[in-house]
Amino acid sequence: MRNAFGGLYVRNVYDILKERGFVAQVTDEKLVREAVSKPITCYIGFDPTAKSLHIGSLLPIMSLAHMQRQGHRPLAVVGGGTALVGDPSGKDEARPVMTREEIESNAEGIKKQLSQFIEFSDGKALMVNNADWLVPLNYIEFLREIGRHFSVNRMLAAESYRQRLETGLSFLEFNYMLLQAYDFWYLSQHYDCVLQMGGNDQWGNILAGADLTRRLDGRDIHGLTFPLITTAEGSKMGKTNRGTVWLDRDMTSPYEYYQYWVNVDDRDVKRFLAYFTFLPIEEIEELTRQEGEGLRKAKEVLAYEATEICHGQDEAQKARSGARQLFGQKVIDDLSAIPTYPIASADLEKGVEAYLLFYSTGLCKTKSQARRLISQGGAYINGNRIPSYETIIDASYLENKTISLRAGKKSFRIITVHDSEAG
To answer: What is the pTM of this model?
Structure first.
């Protein structure tokens, strides 16, 4: 049997996902493993409430990529209909209600990003929008045909609802589980989808869909959830002191994306290589055999592989080259991969206080943060520590017509100079 890419179907994808740490909960391990022993259709829903997905969505995306590589057909379901209601899972308060136009615009961006990870040509994967079947529903008919299969007591026992009861759960959000369960049933009917996957906070919704399908059709369909990832420090995946790490290159540049991965905590390297690259487990074991300084190569491999998957080989190579030059403090010939900040030659001639420059370039969110960073010895110019936040940065700091700024160990900016009149 050959997979979607023409290669031989060798391993059961459930074993691959489990070996790499993807499996948190599964409806029935034996039945799921048996189901994926032959090509199936599986699905994951993606929330279109932003114009880009972020690193927090990567584990589900990588799972679809693994499924496709082993001959299965992924369905990426954009929640255009459910986003009109809002998922209460993992949220302390209700989300703002979005317009149809906003949701559809975001959905287009999401498909473009997913195309970097999975192949949509020739029906190898499909992207559908649940607004297509949810919006036309007749509410009374929906309540009679679908709502009667749901127990309010059981719904309130679900973690996603229970944690919101104290802060308030709107009736609009209360309908979310019914709609997602209906999605699973609809996809099983129209696309022969037999497996839904998602984050562990979706477990109750996935079970509801499997139960609804069993009640309506007498058919067994399956569910699998992934662990909710935090870093070794306990922070949320993809969050930095400068904000969220997005998959859209216009929101997080390929260089900044590379920098996120190359600077992960030593304790996270091994599992992140298993989650976010396609490297064989044996190679990951070899790369992470050493500790401390010996992990530098493993981090560079993680950063390169993750950036190549998301942004392509050329961008990954440029990001790696730029990072190596910056950390080596060599003359930089190619600035294309590194975030730059233009400054007028006249302004540089006058001179700018160091803390203002770190604030203006975005290396620090506030002026007080910039002062604190410099005072604590965490700010560098051309590889040298800046002695005072009042240090005046002027044209004398130019090296090869640029100035290199660094905040801490991993955030860089290259100052470039332009003619004042040219603006």
So the answer is: 0.73
The yes/no answer on whether domain 239-328 falls in CATH 1.10.240.10 is yes
Q: Using H for helix, E for strand and C for coil, what is the string for the chain?
A: CECCCCCECCCCHHHHHHHCCCCCEECCHHHHHHHCCCCCEEEEEECCCCCCCEHHHHHHHHHHHHHHHCCCEEEEEECCCHHHCCCCCCCCCCCCCCCHHHHHHHHHHHHHHHCCCCCCHHHCCEEEECHHHHCCCCHHHHHHHCHHHCCHHHHHHCHHHHCCCCCCCCHHHHCHHHHHHHHHHHHHHHHCEEEEEEEHHHHHHHHHHHHHHHHHHCCCCEEEEECCCECCCCCECCEECCEECECCCCCCCHHHHHHHHHCCCHHHHHHHHHHHCCCCHHHHHHHCCCCHHHHHHHHHHHHHHHHHHHHCHHHHHHHHHHHHHHHHCCCCCCCCCCCEEEEEHHHHHHCEEHHHHHHHCCCCCCHHHHHHHHHCCCEEECCEECCCCCCEECHHHCECCEEEEEECCCEEEEEEEECCCCC
Residue span(s) of the chain under CATH 1.10.240.10 come to 239-328
Of 30-34, 83-87, 176-180, the range with the lowest mean pLDDT is 83-87
- Per-residue pLDDT band at 116 (split at 50, 70, 90): very high
CATH for 13-226, options being 3.40.50.1820, 3.50.30.30, 1.10.10.10, 3.40.50.620: 3.40.50.620
Q: Among 165-174, 201-210, 369-378, where is mean pLDDT lowest?
A: 165-174
